[in-house]
Amino acid sequence: MAEAERLQKVMAQAGVASRRQSEKMISEGHVKVNGKVANELGIKVTSEDKIEVDGIRLNEEPLVYYLFYKPRGVISSVKDNKDRKVVTDYFPGVRERIYPVGRLDYDTSGLLLMTNDGELANKMTHPKYKIDKTYVAKVNGIPSNDDLKALRQGIVIDGKKTAPAHSKIISADKNKQKAIVSLTIHEGRNHQVKNMMAEIGHPVEKLKRETYGFLDLYGLTSSQYRELSEEEVHALKSTAERK
């Protein structure tokens, strides 16, 4: 007999959305199991059940992977209850139900992965997968060598010390008392870079994520995206499997 699992888990593993987003879709009546609307989160299904999301049967969609240069002023979500612009608005020609891997703040620009591969997305965002992410920040003031050293050793935020970060000053304007700082981290706490810079007395004015693992924004301008190559997808999956 096929093993039964919770519907939202099966949806996430199939790449429909994250587990939390899948739960919301179930509650809102977007999901049918064997032809009947399934709006209860406790329901369990097996591989023998016919699962449909908005009329599309599970596993009928091909897996797709995109690298997106997210602009500032855009929500890292597929929907927003305040009718603000969301990342999927920039993919009008993509028919698959893609969603962001992780998130970038509303006012942060830069590299964001978009996919419908739920299994890979879950692995890439799990805390145990220490994937380097490089951010470039415009900050108030010019950090000192001691400030940079503190970032490299870890900053205590909300009672917990951050992992050591790679940090350096790219440029500094002494007249305007502004600096451009590069910071590479592998954690994914909320507003982490902003909080780290604020903690050393140099609040962020503008923030951009330039790399995610081995991926970068080369060849893209803000709002553009490209599909990942087979080699890049294979490398991402290999990275996750090695962790």
TrEMBL record:
Record EC number: 5.4.99.-
Keyword Isomerase part of the UniProt annotation: yes
SMART domains for this protein: S4
Gene3D superfamilies the record matches: Alpha-L RNA-binding motif, Pseudouridine synthase I, catalytic domain, N-terminal subdomain, RNA-binding S4 domain
CDD domains: PseudoU_synth_RsuA_like (cd02870), S4 (cd00165)
Record InterPro entries: PsdUridine_s_RsuA/RluB/E/F_cat (IPR042092), PsdUridine_synth_cat_dom_sf (IPR020103), PsdUridine_synth_RsuA/RluA (IPR006145), PsdUridine_synth_RsuA/RluB/E/F (IPR000748), PsdUridine_synth_RsuA/RluB_CS (IPR018496), RsuA_PseudoU_synthase (IPR050343), S4_RNA-bd (IPR002942), S4_RNA-bd_sf (IPR036986)
The organism's place on the tree of life at top rank: Bacteria
Any one GO CC term of the record: cytosol
Protein name: Pseudouridine synthase
